[in-house]
Amino acid sequence: MSSYDLSLLGWTDLRAAELPTGTVPARVARVDRGAAEVLAADGHHHVKYAAHVRRASAADPVALPCVGDWVALRLLPEGRYELDVVLPRTTAFIRGGVSRDSIGGLSGDGQGQVLAANVDVVFVAEPSMHSTDFADLGRIERLVALAWESGGTPVVLITKSDLFEQGLDDLLADVRVAAPGVDVHAVSSLHGEGVELVAGYLGGSRTAVILGPSGAGKSTLVNALAGESVMDTQQVRAADGRGRHTTVHRELIPLRGGGLVIDTPGIRRIGLYDIGEGVDLVFSDIETLAGRCRFGDCGHNGEPGCAVLAAVDSGELPERRLESWRKLQREAAWMAGRTDARLRKEQQNKWKVITKEMRRSGRNRP
């Protein structure tokens, strides 16, 4: 059984101070239903969750152990480990429980799901050619907003750049407008172009997660970073240009050259969750323009003296970008409302139980 140097997995003295007495640390490499694959100093282990961990996860899915988590393992009398505690996360990439219903509206329960934890860098992978269209700028904006919100540093990778015959510089310029202040790079994993540049964001114990749609070449990039085939890959379907779901689970992979990377399944849709500064950072150009509007509460929907609409009319601000901002603002507001409603319902249910117990106690008094 291989052993691991925990410092190369990201273990620090600060984390050690949070470790409960009588437990040993490990990092989650992969999760399954009610169990996880973890990397510990004495090797790789398959561990089940303690009962209190399962209860906490049932009440709040964000508490569920996820890839990248640091956890405390407790040795049971029968000689096996049990996952006893999820240690506090330094960063967490959380997607909201949002989906489209059959009539095109939003549906969901307002709860989130952690895709990756304790991540330093979020690589947003977007293929330079997605089906017959160029890169999906709206998806890039959404993922970068969530990356900022996670606490990690977003980096946009335009993958499969070798398939883009002309206009790559223009595409990169458009992506930089969609992700202001974010590093944007073209990468061809098959030809090794840009891979060393991507590896430069890692090293030591830094951890990155790669997010993007199926067919973006995420697993191919992981293999290129690892210097060996650690993830299966498939070709994009020729009929519609869409990728197959090669990766069906999230997995933490230590790299021989230092650093760790988390590969993820392709993302079709990802809802916002507890969005605050993330959207503002992605749309910093709109925030700057809004400061010049006549009214401080301008909604950019036809108000007189709106600097944002004036920028759209002059061509300074792409209309697509304003529509994307409006869409994310609506979704963030909807998610906040759903979360508030869920919390109110939980509080009501709690008081119903308390009231019922009080009435029962009153009836049982002598």
TrEMBL record:
Main location group: cytoplasm
Enzyme type, top EC level: hydrolase
This protein's UniProt keywords: Cytoplasm, GTP-binding, Hydrolase, Metal-binding, Nucleotide-binding, Ribosome biogenesis, RNA-binding, rRNA-binding, Zinc
InterPro entries: G_CP_dom, P-loop_NTPase, Ribosome_biogen_GTPase_RsgA, RsgA_GTPase_dom
Record-listed E.C. numbers: 3.6.1.-
Cofactor comment text: Binds 1 zinc ion per subunit.
One MF term in the entry's GO annotations: metal ion binding
One annotated Gene Ontology cellular component of this protein: cytoplasm
Protease recorded as keyword: no
Domain EngC GTPase: 117-268
Annotated GTP binding sites: T159, K160, S161, D162, G212, P213, S214, G215, A216, G217, K218, S219, T220
A Pfam family the protein falls into: RsgA_GTPase
Binding site for Zn(2+): C293, C298, H300, C306
Cofactors that this protein relies on: Zn(2+)
UniProt record similarity statement: Belongs to the TRAFAC class YlqF/YawG GTPase family. RsgA subfamily.
Subunit structure: Monomer. Associates with 30S ribosomal subunit, binds 16S rRNA.
Function text: One of several proteins that assist in the late maturation steps of the functional core of the 30S ribosomal subunit. Helps release RbfA from mature subunits. May play a role in the assembly of ribosomal proteins into the subunit. Circularly permuted GTPase that catalyzes slow GTP hydrolysis, GTPase activity is stimulated by the 30S ribosomal subunit.
Protein's UniProt name: Small ribosomal subunit biogenesis GTPase RsgA
UniProt source species: Nonomuraea polychroma
Gene name of this polypeptide: rsgA
